[in-house]
Amino acid sequence: MTVSPPEMDRVLEARSISKSFGPVHALTDVSILVRPGAVHALVGENGAGKSTLAKVLAGIEQPSSGTMTIDGAAFAPRDRADAKRAGVNMVPQQLSLVGELSLVENYLLVGSRRLVSRRSARALLKATLERARVDVDLDLPTATLSQAHRQLGEIVVALAEGAHTLILDEPTASLGPLEVGGLFEHLRSLCDLGTAVVLITHRLDEVRQVADDLTVLSHGENVHHGSAARLESTEIARLMVGELPPPAARSERRPGATVLRAAGVVAASTRDASLDGVDLAVRAGEIVGIAGVAGSGQNLLLDVLGGFVKPDSGTVAFAGTEAGSRAGASAAAFQRAGLAWIPEERTEAVVPAMSLRENLTVYSAAVGAARKRGGATRDARTGGTQTVEDTLSAYDVRPVRPELAASGLSGGNQQKLLAARELGASPAPRVVLAYGPTQGLDLRASQAIRERLVDLAVGGSAVVVASHDLEEILGVADRVVVMFAGRIVADLPIAEADTERIGRAIAGLVDGSAPDSPARGDVE
What we know:
Blueprint: H1 5-8, E1 12-21, E2 24-34, E3 39-44, H2 50-57, E4 65-70, E5 73-74, H3 80-85, E6 88-91, H4 103-110, H5 118-132, H6 147-160, E7 165-169, H7 177-192, E8 196-200, H8 204-210, E9 213-218, E10 221-227, H9 233-241, E11 258-267, E12 275-283, E13 287-291, H10 298-305, E14 313-318, E15 321-324, H11 331-336, E16 339-342, H12 356-373, H13 388-394, H14 411-423, E17 431-435, H15 443-458, E18 462-466, H16 470-474, E19 479-484, E20 487-493, H17 499-506
Parallel strand pairs: 3-8, 3-9, 6-7, 7-8, 13-18, 13-19, 16-17, 17-18
Antiparallel strand pairs: 1-2, 1-4, 4-5, 9-10, 11-12, 11-14, 14-15, 19-20
Helix pairs in contact: 4-5, 5-6, 12-14
Protein name: Simple sugar transport system ATP-binding protein
GO molecular function: ATP binding; ATP hydrolysis activity
Pfam families: ABC_tran
């Protein structure tokens, strides 16, 4: 589709933008030019200033200095609503749709035209869907939509509000390869219409796949701004983080006794595939990766394994306690027994209004006290000689300011804060359940978290890692379990888990049932 000249004139430009939060310089003299009809990738380490720059462009934060223009005219939004009226809108990493409401109702809630009728709102959204070549149900509660459709729905609402420049913060963090490909097709369609897209991402293959232009930030400063063409992933990585040390060699481990077991688990969900007779055993010293496209049941399985959802039938056993349809064990009981938990949605585990210190210590102290009453002695890593500052530094949480509210951190640094709390306990957790533990993290931080998971397994922890990112799973797993439509359809040792076999299983192209999980003895 040919873009009309008026649409092509809408260039968003920021010049010499600086932004400080007290003594912290988040941005220093940063410039960016966003062209209509192009995808502009914005990359950098966690804490490099990407989210701050995006919020300045979207009117959510005010720059300390610098200027912005749209089509040569001054652009100085006082708030997000002001920026939206000028055509610049940001879709946050943590999607803002109200799950109980449909897309039509979400638009009525946030749209600038407050007196618009439901009929006219639906007609506008339907026209926007057709223009963007997107197929999303307008009338279902958005909580029942897949993650990919919620992402597209948020984009459609932004377009209906009149956005000509879309800022997407880590839109692929919770999407699998198929969903990512579909999203990028839609983004290219939007670019054909003249929409400008700013894509914040840590996946360098995505930069090469879809980006026309590229800005790389490092420690709040521009280190590259220009065409994304002819830049190899290794060069982009070097610009972002410098030279990375080689990853630690995969160690040979002999798994011990079964620590966590699900037997005949059946559970229902409105947001994920219902579980249908799932059996899974995880042994001490073992890392089990759980793969599958979004909505295959892996999210619900981790909720059940963690005691957060009680199965309709079947049982989950861990450390002498059992949770099932007739059992009384809960997530709190499992945590007292030594379970660490990293959910897909970090907002379920990090309290934004609490300080970094409180997020690290209050939760840990409460769980630690409960464990002492139950005979366990797990103390927070922040106890003893380990200070909060030490823990934040060890997990590279930026800035190292214990009294800063967690809401003041970028999404990636909130993820590192969560990892510090859950993976940095002493003694180490007996079981780790982690969903996408490196989502939103840069290369260096991702490597550090994966090495920590391996270290925990070497020390005897049983580790389960679920992720939409197959690379994340293959980087740490000893076994890869593949889920499809709420069932385990493959259970492969890492030596047999090539991308072709996993890909066929993810697509449901397998014959027969999955093999039994190993170590079917009693749970230790």
